[in-house]
Amino acid sequence: MPGIPKLSLVEGGFEELSQELATYLDTLRGEGSNVASEIAPLLAEPEQEEGESKKTDKDAVLKKLVTASSALNSAPERELQAAYNLLIHLIGQAADPDRYLPPVCRCLTNPITSSPQNGTGIALGILGTLFNTLQPDDETRFHVLLAIVELLKRTGNYEHIRPQLKNLDAWLKEWEMDPNQERQLFRSLSEAASTGGEPEESYMYLLKAVRTLQEEASSPQARDLSLNALKTALQSEKHFDFQDLTSLDSIQALRKSDETWSELLELFVDQTYEDLEDFKDGKGSFITDQGLNEDVLDKKMRLLTLATLAAQASETRTISYSHIAKALRIPAEDVEMWVIDCIRCGLVEGKLSQQREEFLVHRSTHRTFGEKQWREIASRLETWRASLTNVLVV
């Protein structure tokens, strides 16, 4: 058979097109393939008398075609999209198309051996068309989206799907996915964002995956995902607020299963650089054994310690260079550099005074916000109210 040259617009009945696709699959699969002969008895014959007519067993035919469809990935590039379009067209005539589309999506995530350079683009085009032709509430869209994400993860082209992900929550609500399916999609998105150079978005989807496991917070899967999220947060040079982790049941469960990891997290929640040094002295090579970058952890903890110093200086609003140098365990001449880095990270705002060797704090970030911080706010509001009262009296 010379191929399937023009199938963007599909014409013909189910029986005729099924036989044509089966013959094409036999050609691709080579000697020993007999898909065409296997489906022949399942197809209605075109010229039968009314009393002798039989119906085509579409489900049995499609099962054989879909099972053999992995061979389409070896089809010539100019025929590949047309062949897949034909298969999808035939599946659309089934009583339950959702039964056959997920395996086809999985096939499209496999390498296109006949076109290593353009194969991914062709597969994305087929999947994109399929996604857009399905009804918005059709849960098969989930499998198509998962296949698209898998392809983007392999190529590192996460930016191609990012604009559409603003609809993700609405899609999942329409599809009524169970937690396992949502978790599978979130993990794939996290990996795709990571390979695409978007660590913050990767962490966001990883956290969403962890949240799907809160009803089984002590399970091995919840532990593994939670540790992965914790490592990612610790290693991220832009992540400084760890309350998104400490609020999760699966993270709290680490206090029993992984006490050392829980202790390390608590350090970054509200402790100082000195406490981190004590942790490293007491735990030996734990940090390096777990594949964590010690330099990244040291830098992050120094910045967090400086933020804590600024938050504690609520009355004087100033911190001396010597106090900063001692708390961060750095040379005095490096203080200004660390303060500037802390300002760039958005943890503090203020003004350096080289003459007085002080840092004047304009704004500071509280690493934890609990009863003590609420009392501080109440105290400031009370002072403000008293000042306004005095102004009114005057």
Automatic annotation (TrEMBL):
GO cellular component: eukaryotic translation initiation factor 3 complex
GO biological process, one term: cytoplasmic translational initiation
SMART domains to which the protein is assigned, alphabetical: PINT
Keywords from the named record: Cytoplasm, Initiation factor, Protein biosynthesis
Protein's UniProt keywords contain Cytoplasm: yes
Residues of the PCI domain: 198-366
GO MF annotation: an example: translation initiation factor activity
A Pfam family annotated for this UniProt entry: eIF3m_C_helix
InterPro entries in the record: ARM-type_fold, COPS7/eIF3m, eIF3m, eIF3m_C_helix, PCI_dom
Family (UniProt): Belongs to the CSN7/EIF3M family. CSN7 subfamily.
Protein name stated in the entry: PCI domain-containing protein
Source species of the chain: Friedmanniomyces simplex
